[in-house]
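Possible regression after last week's pipeline update?

I re-ran a chain I had predicted before the update to compare outputs. Posting the input and the new output here so someone can diff against the archived version. Not blocking, just want to make sure nothing changed silently.
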Amino acid sequence: MKRLVIRGGTLLDQTGERAGDVAIENGRIVEVGNDLKGDTELDARGCIVSPGFVDLHVHLREPGKEEAETIETGTRAAALGGFTAVVAMPNTDPAHDTVSVVDFVRAQGQKAGLCEVLPSGCITVGRAGTQLAPFAELAAAGVHLFTDDGNGVQNPQLMRSALEYAGPLGIVLAQHCEVAALTKGAVMHEGACCSRLGLPGWPAIAEELMVMRDIELVRLTGVSMHFLHLSTARSVQMVRAAKAEGLRITAEAAPHHFTLTDEQLNGYDPVFKVNPPLRTRADIDAIKAGLADGTIDAIATDHAPHAPHTKEVPLDEAPPGMLGLETALALSISELDMPLGQIVAALSWKPAVIAGVADRHGRPIAVGEPANLTVFDPQQQWTVVPAQLASKSRNTPYAGRQVRGKVRHTILNGVAVVANSAATR
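New output (post-update):
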């Protein structure tokens, strides 16, 4: 096999930061040092070389909703964003509640993907909230993270049973925290802005009640729980307190929840409609603080593509969701007052542990380790142009926004799937 060398970068991983080149052969790192030579060389001058990013929360839409995204287009966007692995959410058609669907998604990822695709499993059959999915069968098929994302599990007894079944299997349950009875018909955060606009409000308490309930279920069962896309200050506060008690809880936040407020909906533009909704400046500040102090473990995009015609409707009729894969790094660098090492940790090795892939993603940059790496220029300025994004859809809320931080190369299993900021296939 040819020897690939990443030259002239600053290496940043769990062990710290240092200058050096990285040589790769047969999918693994074979040398780390200075002035290394290779058959193929990638320029990393002015760049950070880090373990590959892992996204815990991506909607690839396939099977069933390929007009919005496919596994091929979604993973191309992921690779361009520096991600070497993504967890595919189960709200496809059919949903990820059988081994056959999970196997299909994984096989499509292996066939057409530019990053590793990790299918999640449903907590309940069809995400309907009435009957537990076959955890043991899905776990035996390689599923590690289970969620009904898009729906919260409303029945507390069913959620307790899910945790009790999950514990011995060593799987992770990830909750979409929303009490549905409080959000029916809502289109945006309940507050001054929605009152002024005359729109139905989505109260923060709808998220917080389920966070509170599931913290207590974790306390009762002793089983771990992951909270998806936290969006309110009170949610962050409760998770912080639960972690201080030693409860086995992890959490994620999406870039749009630390960069955009509910005021963006003043123009009634459906591109800013998302679930959970954009909140207030105080909530943004709390999310940022939660990331900075480690209360929130991971930055996850909740990449949710929608075909243009589905978003070009009145606000109350439009589906919630935004693109996120190609802008996550830049928004994190541009908006978070955190050391770069902490940002990379929240994008890479911390979510890799939650996703159950820490044996091959988010690994230290060292001889013998799998070569899943991201090379990015933390200073490069660029403007978000929807038509230039790799996703099949165009529903980014950041059109025209100037950001800082750009992926230059992404290495998957020793192969450059992104080189010089362009996908290689």
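Follow-up from reviewer: compared with the archived run. The chain is about 30% helix and 25% strand. Marking as no regression found.
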